[in-house]
Amino acid sequence: MMKNMKTGTKILCCLVIVILICGGYIISTRNKLVGQEQETKQVFANVQVYLQRRNDLIPNLVNTVKGYAKHEEEVFNAVTEARQNMINAKTPEETVQADAALSSAVGRLLAIAESYPDLKAKENFLELQDELAGTENRIAVARKDANEKVTAYNTSIKLFPKNIVAKMFGFNELPLFEADSNAKTVPAVSFN
Amino acid sequence: MRLFTKTNRFIRFLLCASVILLCVANTSALSIPKAESCANDFAGVLSSKTKTHIQKTSDALYKKCKIPVVVATIKSLEGEDISNYAIEMARKWQIAQKDSKKGILILLAVEDREIRIEVSDGLEGVLNDAKAGRIIRQFGTPLKENDYNLGIMQIFDAIVAEVEEPGSVVQDEDTFSKEDLITAFFVILILALSFIATSKSKRNRFWGTSYNTGGSWGGFGSSSSSGGSSFGSGGSFGGGSSFSGGGASSKF
Fold first, then answer.
1. Which of B129, B195, B243 to mutate to test the interface with A (most CBs of A within 10 A)?
2. pLDDT-derived band of residue B16, with 50, 70 and 90 as boundaries?
């Protein structure tokens, strides 16, 4: 009887220790995943901030170009429409599409300037172009950072044994940003 | 069926791991040299007079405003985009100040005939993209005639003048050191608690967090050496990375 009790206590002790270790691991892993998820959301938010900044810059650019190239209505309309689509985009897929359309429209708008030497020489226009190129670059950098974070997060919720904890608390895979080749369509400014 | 899902999962894991390896390979494919001083003439186009001027002015500015302005010349971008190269370099060298997030990198790629001013987040108000572009246009004209010394010197001086201008606030060191103390206290407290409470992997996690809240880079090198436990916890820089692509570049 005495011996039995002892084994019983031993087993109980072992169980308690195992539960404590498992519990500690689960809690720490969960907290870590929450932190990672938050970081990922933060970098996603950065991308949104810069996209918004670009949306704010575009009307100025359109107006400046309009002053010199009045009859390029088609391009102005394309830019305005693409910008509106970008603002209205709800889902990530819509955003990606609208973003691609907007980038190409802005690229065309900037290309127009090439045929208007007066416009090209205007400091105001050049500065707007710099701001736009800078913003596009920030978007690209923020996307790259976001993708790195998302990849790290997605990997960690898939790897054993974290995947068990991830399933337990319902951590889901996050989508990557699409390849950001379109963000690079803004031509580099030349001061010839 | 069970076996099938298991294999499936394994394949997914393999895919994921290879994507990460590719990412790592991509970032390290850029062979960015180590910083030597404030004037890093890797292309060998600057005279010793220019270098001394840059070093002295940069030192003086740093003493006065705690803003590092670093110049680097390289031969070639190795096919990379100058904005990508500049941001990698600025991040790797951890140019920006930890607390104020202020720092500037002027990068000249001689063979590609491109120049870029990379501006950290903390200086966006003082030197926005438009201003950076204007400085290149106004002061970088000698670059066109391959006068790299004059071109770089003029751009450098213009940036220093712009940054020094009244309005760019000088850092108050006291508040920052106080904040640092508090942060350090909490980090130690948390570390001690976590050490007592749980396993080794948890300790790593808290190291990771302290890096991020400190607003520092984390940098590629430092975070991967501090994380160490798995792909997930290391390998990425902190949320407060101070360079996010601001500045301007131009061909000449």
1. B129
2. low
The pLDDT score that the predictor gives to residue B185 is 74
List chain A residues with CB under 8 Å of B132: 130, 134
Q: Where are the beta strands (DSSP E) in chain A?
A: 189-190
Nearest CA among B105, B65, B103, B62 for reference residue B85: B105
Most confident listed range (A141-150, B81-90, B162-171): B81-90
Residue of B nearest to A38 (CA): B239
Count up the domains in chain A and report the number.
1
CATH number at residue B126: 3.10.310.50
Tell me which chain B residue has its CA closest to the CA of residue A121.
B137
- 3-state SS class at A112: helix
Rg (chain B; Cα; Å):
21
Q: Which of B23, B230, B247 has the CB atom closest to A159's CB atom? A: B230
Answer whether residue B43 shows pLDDT above 60: yes
- Which residue range forms the structural domain that includes residue B55? 39-170+243-251
Closest CA–CA distance from residue A128 to any residue of chain B (Å): 7
Which DSSP category does B81 fall into?
Answer: -
Chain A residues with beta carbon closer than 8 angstroms to that of B11? none
Q: How far is Cα A96 from Cα A178, in angstroms, rounded to an integer?
A: 7
pLDDT at residue B142 above 60? yes
User: Is residue A17 assigned to a domain?
Assistant: no
Query: What does the alpha-carbon distance between residue A114 and residue B17 come to, in Å, rounded to a whole number?
Result: 45
Q: Which chain B residue has the Cα nearest residue A32?
A: B205
For residue A59, give both structure tokens. Answer: 């009307």
0.90 exceeded by pTM: no
Q: Which of B134, B197, B239 sits opposite A39 (nearest CB)?
A: B239
- Tens digits of per-residue pLDDT, A30-53? 999 999 989 888 888 888 888 888
CA-to-CA separations, A22 to A30, B93, B179, B228, in angstroms, rounded: 12, 41, 36, 21
CB nearest B16 (choices: A29, A46, A154): A154
Q: What backbone torsions phi and psi does residue A189 show, to the nearest 5 degrees?
A: -75, 135
Which of B129, B199, B208 has the CB atom closest to A24's CB atom? B199
